[in-house]
TrEMBL record, chains A, B:
Name of a matching Pfam family: HxlR
Protein name per the record: Transcriptional regulator, HxlR family
Keywords linked to the UniProt accession: DNA-binding, Transcription, Transcription regulation
GO molecular function, one term: DNA binding
Biological classification of the source: Bacteria, Bacillati, Actinomycetota, Actinomycetes, Streptosporangiales
Domain HTH hxlR-type: 11-108
InterPro entries to which the protein is assigned, alphabetical: HTH_HxlR, WH-like_DNA-bd_sf, WH_DNA-bd_sf
Length: 153, 153
DNA sequence: CGAAAGGGTTCCTTGAAGAGACGTACCTCT
DNA sequence: AGAGGTACGTCTCTTCAAGGAACCCTTTCG
């Protein structure tokens, strides 16, 4: 559908979307995270077309979000795993889960729960300020131009 | 492109993607957040096709992420604004910004900065556990099935 | 040997994205 | 009164990616 490329916009949201903005990518990431990392497993569990899966995996590998590694020499077999860059992307997944749980889960309740190693409890993510550690959301910040801002008229 | 619908998967990520998974939606949200809420403004600042913008806005309004409100009676004029549901989605934007800043900003540095009202400093978001307030990411949790999990064989 | 598994590739069809012309209601200027 | 401008879309046409399914290659198993 001749998708507009976002990669060179002066916006970190656009650049992030350029990497994982395509709808299947977060789901692929989620599955790789929970250990579903082989081609056929991914294809079947997501119900994605094999062609599109091939394209997405290649894109994610080229963008250093996933790595493709051989887990068997003979016969040659491969699986996909998260890189450091990809692991940090999972923050995004956790925030998506949080929002989805709050606004779309309905009667049944959340489909998955997180148990935090540090406290052993079932919790969810909250956004805090990296400086003062207090809660931070879009209603309690000012948005200022940064060094990488585009010079706009 | 006969996109697969995610809305009825038993997965909060999929359901969140169903609402804002299309690539333009987060950018529309970002613009509405910073006060760019009128049709022509959005169309010009994003470079999106008018047809697609119409479709996206309708989808976001129907899903209660944005509201369309009249700010002038005669001539009739409308603008789009965030609902509570949409405002909480901005958490996602902040996490995208954080990842984009870290991994894609390059030489120039981040295009925007956040000043946190609570401390007055420039900071970024970090994910903390809702129970113990300590940092939480995907490497320090167990993922358990919740009440809304699909019964899979 | 034939069949199956893993990991893709190739081909065709359909339908959404993009571009841009057009429409409508209103206001302002001369 | 007419010309021009603005805000907010709708319509039409073309192009290109998603979806679906068949096919391919290598290796192992019965």
């Amino acid at each position: 559908m001749q998708r507009t490329r976002f990669g060179d916009m002066a916006c970190s949201i656009a650049r992030t979307l350029d990497v994982i903005g395509e709808s299947w990518s977060p789901l692929i990431l989620r599955n790789v995270l929970v250990g579903i990392g082989r081609f056929d497993q991914l294809q079947q569990s997501l119900g994605i077309s094999r062609k599109v899966l091939t394209e997405r995996l290649k894109w994610l590998v080229d963008n250093d979000v996933l790595e493709r590694r051989r887990y068997s020499e003979r016969p040659p077999r491969y699986e996909y795993a998260l890189t450091a860059k990809g692991t940090e992307l999972c923050d995004l997944l956790m925030v998506m889960v949080r929002w989805g749980d709050r606004w779309t889960a309905g009667e049944a309740g959340p489909p998955v729960l997180y148990r935090h190693h540090a406290c052993g409890e079932i919790g969810h993510v909250e956004l805090h300020c990296s400086v003062c550690d207090r809660p931070m959301d879009v209603t309690c910040i000012d948005i200022l131009p940064g060094p990488g801002a585009a010079v706009t008229a």
